[in-house]
Amino acid sequence: MDVNREFEAHVFRHVRWIAERHGSEEASRLLPLLRQSFDQLERAIRHIESGEYLDALSTLDDILERNRHPYLFTPASVAQAGVYGRDALLASERGPECLPWALYTLSVIEAQDPEIRYSDDLADAHLLLLEELRAFRGADVELVLRKAKDLAQSAWDRKDEMAGAMMELSLGHVLVTAGRFDEARQRLETAVSRLCPDRDSLIWAIRCCVLAEIEANTSRLSEAKTAAEEAEDVFRRKGRISQAFQVANTMGDLFFSRSAWSEAGAFLSRATEAATMVYQSRLLGSERQAWLSEVGSTYRHAGYALARDGCLSGAAVALERGRARALNDAFSSDRISLQRV
What we know:
globular, mainly alpha, 341 residues
């Protein structure tokens, strides 16, 4: 398995940063350690693929601990370690541990030097946290709030505006989860003044997601629709298709529950497009089957909403997309099931 090219770019950018501030000798000394970090990531992936989840978690935990060095490793490796750790926990049926793991990963990235911690890396860690909050609605929200408030205060104390703004957004999301919408809006307003939509585009997209949830839960559906469409557009342009799916699907379900068929059909139709793209990116049949189980209702809801809105051809397309994915999964070479076919 080759090191991902994106990781390579981060390594070279990181080494250049170290050389400029600490000299070429220090950069040369740290380069092998940077390589080691990515070698460990590859080893962890192989452990996960082989079902050796404890070994994978041990390796990833070592990466995260090493990344507490002020400038040794890159935030990209931290974000990836967090994602792989979550995958290993899920595969080993230890789902409730995913939320603490996401908070742990986030705290490691927060400790990075702001000059080498790129906004997309920080956004990735927060997206991981938000995904886990969405997956585990029964999580101890007060515990997460306390941790997020501590991280936000720490960022403001060290005048780290990017991290502070991002933590305010995460706090806003957690407060929405707790039904405290006025507090959530206040946190959002604090964050917005520190963000640049062009420079911090992924973080801005998260802001739009939080705003959409606030507006939707306070019956400002037009404002919610606008914010969600902005977030979805950013995620698509940045190649974050699974996040684009989540936004479109969440808003589609919201409008569906209110019998707003035109808006529901538009969002859910885009959600089926994104779901298909995510499905095609999954390499293993088991991964595809898991994804289909997660998004199967999206195709049906899209078809129903489009039909109620009078768009019968669109409804047929949405239903056919879902049926085609299911048949393709049933015929997949690694898990053929004639009964399912």
